[in-house]
Prior knowledge:
Elements: E1 5-20, E2 30-47, E3 52-54, H1 68-78, E4 86-91, H2 102-117, H3 126-133, H4 137-142, E5 145-150, E6 154-157, E7 165-170, H5 177-186, H6 213-219, H7 223-234, E8 239-240, E9 247-251, H8 256-262, E10 271-275, E11 283-284
Parallel strand pairs: 3-4
Antiparallel strand pairs: 1-2, 1-11, 2-4, 2-5, 5-6, 7-9, 7-10, 8-9
Amino acid sequence: GGSLVIELRAPAKVNLTLRVGPKEGSYHPLDSLVQAVSLFDGVAVRVAARDRVVAEDSPDVPLDDDNLALRAIRALRNAGAAVPAVEIELTKRIPTGAGLGGGSADAAAALVAGHQLAGSPQGIDLARVAARVGSDVPALLVGGTIRMTGRGEETAPLSPVTSPSWLLATPPFACSTADVYRRWDDLGGPSDSPRAWPRTSAETGLGPLNDLEPAAIDVQPQLGRWLDSLSALAGLRAMVSGSGSSVFVEVPDESVLAEAVADPLLATARHLSVVQPVGHGPVTGGGRDQAGTDR
């Protein structure tokens, strides 16, 4: 039967690699290996009298037209789907301003739910709608392991990464994506050194696999200390996810978490956890349970 509420869990992402090209018009072309990970927002979409977003305990989440989940619903209607008025209830676990795609994950879930509430119309290309909402939305709609290129609108699923766990830390400060890209332009744009596409940090001794990392550190100099702390803890090179501020490093298992919590710098993190790769995008499931371990 047609339930009037759809509850989804939307995974965050990390960028295992991120190459950035010089600005073309108003955007930078990207080439990134994106991985969905086991940190989820709960997104409940229900038929309502008018469109609105609710995010209890998350004062930094926009509730107006700046909210990507709301923009996703409107983009779906613009594409011809008869989506009723909805309330989108967000249970935020993915930190904001963190380079983890939290807003984009919520938008991807809203697209899935809105499409269902509209009766799953056949003629709607969800991936194309996703690209209109934001550059990380198409990849997070697919989930799993994705090669993302262009403005983010070109996505190709790759064979899933299953083995590594990552220690993920979000510092107590955010990074503005716009500021980091502006600084990247100021610093002279792309580095010419060609780089491999390693599946794990263990396979490479090469420099950062995220072209935005030097710019993010320039915008938030403290980020360097966070990278150093994670690298020292794991004995592998940590990296920034997206435009920051989150940093992550490959670890053998969850036992490293106790050591991380004891580190005076890492103890100040807004979010600190060990995450695994997940092979999906938004999936049905209660928004409130913290099931952070499923594959």
